Amino acid sequence: MVKKNAIMRYKILDSLLSNRNHYYTITDLVDKVNEALELDGMEPVSRRCIEKDLNALECAPYDADITRDWKNGRKYIRYGEAGFSIFTKKLSDDEENLLSEVLNTLGQFSGLNNFEWLECLKSRLDIKEHRQIIQFDSNPYLQNSTLLGGLFTAISNEQVLNLKYHTFSNPQIREVVVHPYLLKQYNKRWFLLCGAEDETILTFAIDRIDDFELLPHIKYIYPTDELGDRFDDIVGVTLYNNKPIEDILLWVSVAEYPYITTKPLHGSQKEVKNEQLIELREKYATFGDGHFIRLKCVLNVELEQLLMSHMDQVVVLEPEVLREKIVQKVASLQKLYGLK
To answer: Which of 18, 150, 154, 272 could form a disulfide with 292 if both were Cys (CB 3.0 to 4.6 A apart)?
Structure first.
């Protein structure tokens, strides 16, 4: 990673090397850079440091063409191309195609409040239109999607919100003061993860949020840990405070196993092998062929839904609390379908 001081020197050197009205020797460059650094209250650097900086500018990602020409017995250093700057470097075709695709991906938010800068960025970069190469699975009918831009800005600016929302079971609007941390998409829906005043992590579906207002007089509370790391232990977006990670044992049919391996149920998924496999085949002999896999994650409703989506091809064996919940869901389905 390039340090901040190095970036400052690169910026100074860039202005000197691109100046077509002056010629600078290595000594001149050292003096000019140190003058600028001292004005900013920074320590001066050595000639060796500036020589290394010049070498760095000639390498990726800057790829500057720096010439060293003799004139009147002195060696002058400057950019070989007039008008060149490491900050206005022309994009390669591959870079332009990649940037165009990134902007098109972000373009799913175009038209939303607070995202007008996307169109301005495209215009300023003069990015040509390309046919779509990557398409993501999105929901064009998502309710309240216009709130995404405002929530994005509130998170960026670390602003406390008075959130107005309702639940599926109760249409009455409620209010709560929250500290917004993260926007996360799961299963074609967007969710806002935020902290309550007592630092409890709350999750709100965007389609359940009616409106919000900024509360600039309230001090923003930062999350006590890296919120994204919490998702390593769950499926979906429902987080629980202090809920333990469970050791989950599943039986997977031979037919379903290839799908489970190419699209794991959770990042912790591992197949049971060797002596443990022999023990499980004896314990669960009625299942015959198939595979046993283990997961280590927190139990939540999204995990239950995911397991149910595999129907009779995936069976929960342990823990009993999760097995019982799946059994109850199956019994409910039998009742709905009129089965005995």
So the answer is: 272
